[in-house]
Amino acid sequence: MKKKLLALMLGTSLVMGLAACGGGTSTSKDTSKNTSNTGTKTTTNNTASAGDAAKIFSQHCASCHGDNLQGQVGPNLQKIGSQLSKDQILGILKNGKSGGMPAGLISGSDADAIATWLAAKK
């Protein structure tokens, strides 16, 4: 009986952890577009700020990597930029990583913003 209860508890914890890390489908809009009108020409800047990246991280990554990047279920990311380049981080975001990092959790400009932000963590 104790083994069944333990298995049930572990299974429930695993499912809840994966659900929290998965985050579902991203419905966030790119709010990092800054448009300025210079005479008759309009220019758009699509680069996200560090604040935008921190917000995206908080919404999609902190449940596994911690509010301060200290690691929990996922690894510590406080100095990940000294270990991985922006392109390597983007690859992990796109393809996932064995051990629990799901593929495609963040994509597009959000992934680029997170990768740039994390690559600066040295």
What does this structure look like?
- InterPro entries: Cyt_c-like_dom, Cyt_c-like_dom_sf, Cyt_c_BACSU-c550-type, Cytochro_C551, Cytochrome_c550/c551-like.
- Residues 26-47 have a biased composition (Low complexity).
- Residues 48-122 form the Cytochrome c domain.
- Residues 1-19 form the signal peptide.
- This is C-type cytochrome.
- The protein has 122 residues and is mainly alpha-helical.
- It has a domain at 48-122: Cytochrome c-like domain (Cytochrome Bc1 Complex, Chain D, domain 2, Orthogonal Bundle), CATH 1.10.760.
- 48% of the residues lie in helices and 8% in strands.
- It is built from 5 helices and 2 strands, in the order αββαααα.
- The protein has a two-stranded antiparallel ribbon with strand order 1-2.
- A hairpin with a 2-residue loop joins strand 1 and strand 2 (41-45).
- Helix 4 (86-95) crosses helix 5.
- The longest helix has 21 residues, at 2-22.
- The protein is globular and about 30 Å long.
- Residues 2-46 have low confidence and may be disordered.
Quick overview:
With 122 residues, this protein is mostly helical. The chain contains 5 helices and 2 strands, in the order αββαααα.
Question: What's the arrangement of secondary structure elements?
Answer:
Layout: H1 2-22, E1 34-38, E2 41-45, H2 50-60, H3 62-65, H4 86-95, H5 108-119
Antiparallel strand pairs: 1-2
